[in-house]
Amino acid sequence: MAITALRELVESPSEDFGPDDVLTGVEAVHAAPDDADGRPGERTLCGKPTADMERMAYRPDRPEAPWLPPDMTASACRQCADALQPA
């Protein structure tokens, strides 16, 4: 199963530049199975809709490689990560 890593983004008001300025950060990184065209499916492995998530350019370069970039491990969705563990 091919997987796409997706960022779930969260916006918060900037304290430096005023209430109309918004900072965007990563809430979590999710995994979604790819459809037949290689695009992420409608839902992540944890069941969240993918429509408002940002697709990451990362692709594992070998089968045993992690499903998300190593620098994003701390933001991994635990449910998605658990769903990718071998049975």
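Next protein, fold it too.
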Amino acid sequence: MGRRTLVRSLGTSVIGLIAVLGVCYWLKRPEHVFLPSLAQGLPAEFEKANETFKARINENFPVGSSESVLVRRLHEDGFKQGGPFRENPGKPEMYSASFVQPGFPCKLVWAIYWHAENDKLTLVTSSYTGTCL
């Protein structure tokens, strides 16, 4: 293979790679990625987004409301429910649901934690976090 052919092949490969990476980046933009309705439209800054998310969860699922409604809504919105857990032995059993958006440079996680008795929520808390490079 001649030098010219090698340079042309390498150039074509580099251009192809850049095109593929560009398409991947374009598809990962927020408007192309599914987000639960509860997670949409949050501020760009994590601290403000976390506070907005918490307020949204508390507004949609206040203490005293139905646990089954919360579970159904989170399932419909794409959250994955976790099993019961205890923060520590003296605390009541809690449940959780989370939505994880893996990505580069940040992995984003929206999580909701709750406790209920007789289908009535007695505690609801939430968080929006990101792990970035």
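About the second fold: The beta strands are 80-85, 94-101, 106-117, 120-132.
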